[in-house]
């Protein structure tokens, strides 16, 4: 550990008003439990890319995709449907969220990966969103994890529930770890406002809420140019509906970055952790600078190789991996 551990509880608030001559990608995965606690998860994923010429103007929709996934408590895909429909997607039925599913996705949707579609992002994000979704029950039930285990939902995180050295938050010696290597459930979280800016209601695609218990993974990627530089701002949040009717977040990051050159190599990056569950979690943020000098287009693979284990944060790595499509978004600014 670095000795600089701290609790972060500083919500970023609504998305900024869309900038002139910018492209914005927004995505959400909203998880609910139609048959109640411990039963299959219904996940609604939505992603949209828009071009903005003038601040306050209606966005031009460049791409829009969605999915509906029913998954077991162990994150196995029972049903999947995507819109617009792609026949190859049925191959994912039976797959479980994790690295294997992501590898399978690359095989069955190669064009989506090359084209950097919103669909590829949200289906790739099923693994992470399904892993964290159950956390929202901690706001609704006492001893929720023991009840989940009683329903057959054993932990699929880490190494069969052992979280030691999985990421910076669970580095050996962390306050986040119990003696057996499982996670300490005393977590930090924060109530958060809506991500939709009242001054720019079209800045997000239509959001979806399950009733009454719902967990949302939300992403925003803004891309614009300043001279020869490509400017990037990424927002990431895992939040859910609490019993008071508001939203509580357990993860939130903001990232500001600059890419340069014909191949869009990362030249500068600042990671701003806003809400994280354990005091050791922010230790991963400075390590993002290790990505400087690498091409954004490689980030889906290179982030995992550069920031493994305690060097990274599972959720920050997901934020950085999503930047792989920035070159495609930047090319759309001229549309």
Describe this structure in words.
It is a single chain. The protein is α+β, with helices and mostly antiparallel strands and 335 residues long. The protein is 18% helix and 29% strand. Strands 1, 2, 3, 4, 5, 6, 7, 8 and 9 form a 9-stranded antiparallel sheet that branches. A hairpin with a 2-residue loop joins β6 (214-226) and β7.
Summed up:
This protein is an alpha+beta fold. The chain has helices spanning 99-108, 110-115, 118-124, 126-132, 144-150, 299-306, 314-321, 326-331, and strands at 22-32, 41-52, 60-71, 77-83, 190-192, 214-226, 229-241, 247-260, 265-275.
Kindly estimate the percentage of residues that lie in beta strands according to DSSP. 25-35%
What form results from the Cα inertia axes? globular
Q: Unreliable runs, pLDDT <50, ≥5 residues?
A: none
Spatial gap, N to C terminus: 47 Å
Number of helices: 8
Indicate the structural class.
alpha+beta
- What is the H-and-E element order? EEEEHHHHHEEEEEHHH
Please name the defining characteristics of this protein.
335 residues, 8 helices, alpha+beta, 29% strand, 9 strands, globular, single chain
């Amino acid at each position: 550990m670095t000795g600089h551990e701290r609790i972060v509880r500083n919500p970023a608030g609504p998305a900024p008003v869309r900038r002139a001559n910018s492209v914005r990608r927004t995505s959400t995965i909203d998880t609910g439990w139609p048959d109640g606690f411990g039963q299959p998860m219904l996940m609604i994923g939505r992603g949209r890319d828009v071009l903005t010429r003038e601040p306050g103007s209606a966005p031009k929709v460049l791409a829009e995709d969605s999915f509906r996934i029913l998954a077991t408590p162990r994150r196995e895909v029972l049903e999947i449907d995507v819109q617009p429909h792609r026949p190859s997607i049925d191959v994912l039925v039976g797959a479980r969220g994790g690295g294997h599913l992501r590898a399978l996705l690359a095989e069955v949707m190669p064009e989506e990966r090359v084209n950097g579609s919103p669909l590829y992002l949200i289906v790739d994000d099923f693994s992470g969103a399904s892993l964290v979704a159950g956390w929202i029950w901690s706001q609704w039930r006492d001893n929720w994890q023991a009840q989940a285990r009683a329903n057959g939902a054993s932990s699929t995180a880490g190494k069969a529930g052992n979280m030691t050295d999985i990421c910076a938050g669970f580095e050996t010696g962390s306050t986040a770890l119990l003696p057996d290597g499982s996670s300490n459930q005393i977590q930090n979280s924060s109530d958060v406002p809506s991500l939709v800016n009242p001054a720019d209601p079209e800045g997000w695609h239509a959001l979806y809420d399950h009733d009454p218990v719902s967990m949302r993974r939300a992403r925003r990627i803004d891309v614009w140019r300043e001279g020869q530089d490509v400017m990037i701002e990424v927002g990431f949040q895992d939040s859910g509906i609490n019993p008071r009717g508001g939203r509580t977040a357990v993860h939130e990051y903001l990232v500001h970055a600059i890419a340069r050159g014909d191949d869009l190599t990362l030249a500068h990056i600042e990671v701003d952790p806003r809400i994280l569950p354990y005091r050791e979690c922010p230790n991963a943020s400075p390590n993002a600078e290790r990505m400087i000098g690498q091409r954004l287009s490689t980030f889906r693979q290179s982030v995992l190789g550069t920031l493994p284990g305690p060097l990274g944060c599972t959720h920050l790595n997901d934020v950085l991996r999503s930047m792989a499509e920035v070159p495609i978004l930047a090319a759309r600014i001229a549309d």
